[in-house]
Amino acid sequence: MQSVLLTNNIGKYTMSTKKAFVPLIELLEANKDKKVSEILDQAKALTDAKTGGGGRSADNVLRNDKGEVTHIFCYYHKMWESVTDVEFGKKASSPTGLSNMCKEGTASWTKQQRDAKTARDKLLKDVAAGEVKPSEIGTRTEEIEKARQEIIPRKDKKGTKNKPKTA
Ligand SMILES: [Zn+2]
């Protein structure tokens, strides 16, 4: 039992490692004629455990057999979103070249961060002006935080909770 489990884990590990190298191979293929020093930084970024194909972000990305990104686990909506159905902004520093939030999610996130800041500033002013009792700060702050962290679903309801199967 123990050995079967171990074998399975090794199998998984090897598969995911190979997949993780796909972006690096793509980079090398695309820059065959360049000097290593010219693409070293990009290669490092791709293999970095924190940002690269083998790290955390690999768990948030689904690629097809060709290594092309098909789905991203949207950091805002907490849903698997197809990159062909849903618009993602470009982000050069990301291993996928795309943002980890869809455009609609990014817009909601940005607005909620800004609204929360405005609300916190107003709360402080209201407390200073005696319009809000200091004892209410806790409850008010909680309300502001709740609104900031709320996930507003996509209008078109696209995305799935479960990771889709590779196409
Ligand atoms: Zn999204």
Describe this structure as you would to a colleague.
The protein is built from 4 helices and 5 strands. The chain is α+β, with helices and mostly antiparallel strands and 167 residues long. The strands form 2 sheets. It has a 3-stranded antiparallel sheet, with no helix packed on it. A two-stranded antiparallel ribbon has the order 4-5. It is 48% helix and 13% strand. The N terminus is likely disordered. The protein has 2 domains: 46 residues, no CATH class; 112 residues, no CATH class. α1 packs antiparallel against α2. Zinc ion binds next to β5 and α3. The site of zinc ion has 9 residues, from β5 and α3.
Give the low-confidence spans.
Answer: 1-14, 50-56
What is the beta-strand fraction?
5-15%
Question: What profile does the largest beta sheet have?
Answer: 3 strands, antiparallel
Mean pLDDT metric: 82
Based on secondary structure, the structural category is alpha+beta
Radius of gyration: 22 Å
Spatial sequence of strands, sheet with the most strands? 1-2-3
Run of helices and strands: HHEEEEEHH
Q: How many distinct folded domains?
A: 2
Topology:
Elements: H1 2-30, H2 36-47, E1 61-63, E2 69-74, E3 79-82, E4 88-90, E5 98-102, H3 103-128, H4 137-149
Antiparallel strand pairs: 1-2, 2-3, 4-5
Helix pairs in contact: 1-2, 3-4
Zinc ion (ZN) is lined by residues 74, 76-77, 81, 101-102, 104-105, 154.
